[in-house]
C-alpha cells in the first residue's frame, strides 16, 4: 500500500486543470478583441497573455494550467475619436468596465452588459469561492463600518473564504495581500490554520510559512524589545526603557497616514480602558514636518507621549523594528519583551484583555 501511494504522487503533482472560457457581448458592442492575462504558475514570474478576436459578439479561450489561477480579461475597444472621458474603465462606483476577473477553472461563461460590466456563470469550486469573496467584500462595503479601512474589510472577507472554502486556492491567493511585506502573526496565523492540509502544502504557502514562524517567535514573549531614545514634542529625549514595569504599545503612525488616523480612536479607547492598570502608549511618528505632526496630535486628541526624529522610515525606532508600512505597532510587556505586533481594531482589545487582568 505504501508503494502504491508513493507511485501515485508524481501523477497527482502533474495534474492539469482544464478551462474553457466563453464570452458574450451585447449586439452592437464595439469591442474588437479580448485579452486574458494570468500567472502560469506560482513562481512569481511574468504573466501569460492570450488574445481572442471577437466575432458576432462572442469570444473564447481554452487550455490547461497547473492549477486554477485568477485571470484578468480586458475588452479592447477600437480607436475612437470620442471624448476621452467616454473611455474610462470604471464608473463612479468603482466597478470595472470592460474588465472581467475569474478563475481558470472548468467552463466559465462571462457575459458583458451594455455598460461593460461582467457577470459570470459556471466554473468549478475555485470560481465559486472567488464569487463568494466578491459577495463578502460587497456586503461589508455596503455596511460601511467607518472604523475599518479597506484592508481590514478584505481581511474579514478572506477569513470567511477560508472558513467556507478551506481547500481552495482562492484563500491562498488572497493571503498574498498579507504575506508580501511583514507578516502579522495574529492575523495570518489563524488563516493559515484554517487552510486544508493540502493548501498548507501548496507552493505559495510553503514560501511564506518560514516568515510566519519567525513572526510568531517575535511575539512569543522571548524577544527583548530594542531600546531607542527620541525627542518628544517639547524636544526632550524619551527612552523606551523608561516604560519598563508597564505594558506599553509602541504605536507607529504619521499625520499623513489616513488608516493611522482612522485607527487612533481605537487606540484611544484601549488607552482609556487600561491606563489605570499599567498600560501605556508611546506614539512614534514617521512624519517629516513638525507642524503637521503637532497639528495631528491636537486634532486627534492623543494624550500619550509622542516622539519623532523626522526621518520617516529611516528613523531610529522604525529601523530597529523593521517598520515597512504604517499603521503598525508593537506591544511590550513589563519585562521589556515583545508580546504582540500590528494589533488593530478588536484584536488590540482582545490581546490586552488576555494580558491585563
From TrEMBL:
Signal peptide: none
GO biological process, one term: cytochrome complex assembly
Cell compartments where the protein resides: Cell envelope
InterPro entries on file: AhpC/TSA (IPR000866), DUF4369 (IPR025380), Thioredoxin-like_sf (IPR036249), Thioredoxin_CS (IPR017937), Thioredoxin_domain (IPR013766), Thioredoxin_ResA/DsbE_sf (IPR050553)
Keywords: Cytochrome c-type biogenesis, Disulfide bond, Redox-active center
Flavoprotein among keywords: no
Keyword match Disulfide bond: yes
Record-given protein name: Peroxiredoxin
Species of the source: Chitinophaga eiseniae
